[in-house]
């Protein structure tokens, strides 16, 4: 019973802790600095390829989460998200997805692709009608 009460009181105390935003904002730059040092190991031309630095980014994410939790703040929160967005702008602002420009095929190919199913449909309809009129033979 004492153990359950202790857990209950600890949970109640934890819920009443207020987020120390100033402490969190004081500690988050250390995460950014560490990430920046790790990213120096990666060629800047490869910054858009997540597989090149996924471990560094994971460490950065865990660091920001840990510092937010140490300051009794939930994660993510608007302040942490703002900090993370700043890091993204610093390192990944040139990473844009290339949009595929779709074009129609040449007219000869397009006409062929349209006419083949139309002709097959007409042929199948003709075959069905012809077979239904000749049901006495089948």
UniProtKB/TrEMBL annotation:
Pfam families: RAMP (PF04901). It is a single-pass type I membrane protein. GO terms for biological process: calcium ion transport; cellular response to hormone stimulus; G protein-coupled receptor signaling pathway; intracellular protein transport; protein localization to plasma membrane; receptor internalization; regulation of G protein-coupled receptor signaling pathway. It is found in: Cell membrane. GO terms for molecular function: coreceptor activity. Its main location: membrane. Keywords: Cell membrane, Disulfide bond, Glycoprotein, Membrane, Receptor, Signal, Transmembrane, Transmembrane helix, Transport. It comes from the Eukaryota. Gene3D superfamilies: Receptor activity modifying family. GO terms for cellular component: cell surface; plasma membrane; receptor complex. The chain crosses the membrane at residues 109-131. The keyword Protein biosynthesis does not apply. Belongs to the RAMP family. This is Receptor activity-modifying protein 3. It comes from Sakesphorus luctuosus. The lineage of its organism: Eukaryota, Metazoa, Chordata, Craniata, Vertebrata. The gene is Ramp3.
């Amino acid at each position: 019973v004492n153990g359950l009460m202790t857990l209950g009181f600890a949970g109640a105390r934890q819920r009443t802790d207020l987020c120390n935003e100033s402490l969190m904002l004081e500690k988050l730059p250390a995460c950014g600095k560490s990430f920046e040092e790790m990213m120096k190991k990666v060629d800047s031309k490869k910054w858009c390829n997540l597989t090149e630095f996924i471990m560094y980014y994971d460490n950065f994410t865990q660091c920001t989460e840990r510092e937010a939790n140490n300051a009794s703040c939930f994660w993510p929160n608007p302040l942490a998200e703002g900090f993370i967005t700043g890091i993204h702008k610093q390192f990944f602002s040139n990473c844009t997805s290339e949009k595929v420009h779709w074009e129609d095929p040449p007219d000869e190919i397009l006409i062929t692709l349209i006419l083949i199913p139309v002709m097959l449909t007409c042929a199948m309809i003709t075959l069905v009608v012809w077979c239904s009129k000749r049901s006495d033979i089948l």
